[in-house]
Amino acid sequence: MSLVSYTSASTDSPHSSAESSARRRLRSFVPYLVASVFLIIYSAWSINKHERLLTAGYDLGIFEQAVRGYAHLGAPISAIKGPGFNLFGDHFHPILILVAPFYRIFPSPITLLVAQATLIAASAIPVTKIAIKFGGIVAGLGVGLAYGLSWALQSAIAFDFHEVAFAVTMVSFSLAAIIEERWRRAAIWAIPLVFVKEDLPVTLAAIGLVIVLRGQRRLGAALIGFAAVSGTAIVGLVVPAFNPYHAYPYSLNQSPSDQGPIARFFTPATKWTTFAWILIPSGLLAPFSSIFLVAVPTLLWRFWSTNPPYWGMSYQYSAILMPIAFIASLESMSRLRFFQRDVRRRWGVSLIMLATAVIGTYQIPGKLHGFTDGKNWHISREVAAEKAILRSIPDGSTVAADNRLAAQLTSRCTVYFFPGYPGDGTDPEWVVYSTLSTRASPTTRG
Amino acid sequence: MGGLQHAFDKSIADDAWINSKLADIAGRYQVVTRNPSAVLMRRSQS
């Protein structure tokens, strides 16, 4: 569909026929303002969690070991996963190489946390731009803030570091390019998805399908073909080649179960709750745009999986769905003339989306609203005592550390996972473990 | 990271595994520092 069929608010005033240069500058500036605000918030919150020992070996420590390997021109080896374990035998995420130069300069887990904050904050730029295009500056600002506050992005920020942060940015820029009918740009942003994680070639294929449906058959078909070949090679050849058992380790999650296919997709109710909360923050209209097809592969593999953490709202699994839901919903709203040149309606849309984003915050553990609680900016006596013990471990040591403490050591020691190790012929020089909160998941704390 | 569930089940929620490991390494590691928050052990020189 051509852009000319959309309701596009080129100005915030129904009476102005031409934008002033100041207004044009403001329209250009607002997306970057929104992204900058969230870069600061996301960075501050995730660094704060790390300083309060609320990050973990699984997964921040594992990813830091991988990036550390790249930074020293080596393989992505994670001793936390096992002595000499190459992470390509677990997941395929060579995109992490891009973090390595920064890590070489700033060798700290905080580098990964800031990289993630930057990537997710940057994904707000195209979402806000599209919202401004359709609804004007006020609506764009409101939608941009609603997007940045959306629960799934918060869940990702609240839980360590994950490679999917790259995908959130790529999908956001790619879908915005589709809306603008800049097909080649959409493809360029989407193709590197295959280097982010092995489930994302299917998402690339879905982007190709959307492009086909919008009349760009050759380009869309080429993306689908590339996605099929690369996805098959990654899951069928690359990951098994590096895996100790020469298999893709998560295939069992997709294996048959006692449930019938309908029951398996739609039960338990957790899946409905998650699906509803994917649609709610963006205004419920996302399924009325073909852009929403891009969300389908992620929803299918997660809900088909036998692994319960994939079904709910915790962890990072829904982050990639937020730019899809928001951009799809914006397109639907535009087609339904939600953004007619009525300032009150545009204010209304953006305020409702902002309100639902804030309400959504209360649906997830580890939520960002803890940001406003002063006690969360204080290092407790207990945490200070843990840190004191960690400081007594010399740089360059080999350590078996528990999940809570591992990510505090990975930048300066070779860290194994306690209580998995010591054992099996690997006896690190040190063992360190916390006697606090060892039962609490990092996603449910603070 | 797909190892997540394994880690949460085994490391965080299972004190029995931790206690079993501590019993297993008791002869090879000795406690260097213990405070109310954490324990540090060092491999014995042999």
Automatic annotation (TrEMBL), chain A:
Q: Which InterPro entries match?
A: STSV1_Orf64
**Record-annotated membrane-spanning stretches:** 29-47, 95-122, 134-153, 159-179, 186-213, 219-242, 274-295, 315-334, 346-364
Q: Which UniProt keywords apply?
A: Membrane, Transmembrane, Transmembrane helix
Pfam families, per database record: DUF2079 (PF09852)
* Name this protein carries in UniProt: DUF2079 domain-containing protein
| The organism of origin for this protein | Paractinoplanes ferrugineus
